[in-house]
From TrEMBL:
Species of origin: Tolumonas auensis (strain DSM 9187 / NBRC 110442 / TA 4)
Gene Ontology molecular function terms on file: protein tyrosine phosphatase activity
Residue span, Phosphotyrosine protein phosphatase I domain: 5-142
Entry keywords, A to Z: Hydrolase, Protein phosphatase
TM helices/strands, residue ranges: none
EC number(s) on file: 3.1.3.48
Catalytic activity: O-phospho-L-tyrosyl-[protein] + H2O = L-tyrosyl-[protein] + phosphate
Family: Belongs to the low molecular weight phosphotyrosine protein phosphatase family.
Active site residues of this protein: C11 (nucleophile), R17, D116 (proton donor)
Protein name listed in UniProt: protein-tyrosine-phosphatase
A Pfam family matched in the record: LMWPc
Origin organism lineage: Bacteria, Pseudomonadati, Pseudomonadota, Gammaproteobacteria, Aeromonadales
């Protein structure tokens, strides 16, 4: 069984989905290293206001998050790369073809993509948060073994 000690979570801007997933998964797997990045990151930006508000509502802090760009080196430094949408797998593979085998969907166990709530309603952010939380539990159960 492979050991996934360093996990990278990827979305597009690295300000909504991946920061939320990063903090939730870090809570669920405190003994692992969890970080995040974006395919087209809003580099240096803190987490989205709506994402932060919804996370806070659920008792999760996104304080101190700073968006960063996904790079080949970053991909190589992690044992498992979890992306939000099927098309992100192709994007990651373009950046670092050799990591294709360790790139999976964050919603893999839910058998679905996790949609981008960026610039959408509070409800969209709530929906996305709930999906991320559900997917986090599924990964945590499997990675805690």
């Amino acid at each position: 069984m492979m050991h996934f000690d360093a996990i990278l979570i990827v979305c597009v801007g690295n300000v909504c989905r991946s920061p939320t997933a990063e903090r939730l998964l870090q809570q669920a797997l405190p003994h692992k290293t969890v970080s995040s990045a974006g395919i087209a990151a809003l580099t240096g930006q803190s987490a989205d206001v709506s994402a932060t508000a919804v996370a806070q509502h659920h008792g999760l802090s996104l304080d101190g998050h700073s968006a960063r760009q996904l790079t080949r080196a970053l991909c190589q430094q992690h044992d498992l790369i979890l992306v939000m949408e099927q098309q992100h797998i192709e994007a990651v593979t373009r950046i670092a073809p050799e990591v294709r085998g360790k790139t999976m969907l964050y919603g893999h166990w839910l058998k679905r993509d996790i949609p981008d709530p960026y610039r959408q309603s509070r409800e969209a952010f709530e929906f996305t948060f709930d999906l991320i939380a559900e997917a986090t539990q599924a990964w945590a159960q499997r990675l805690n073994k």
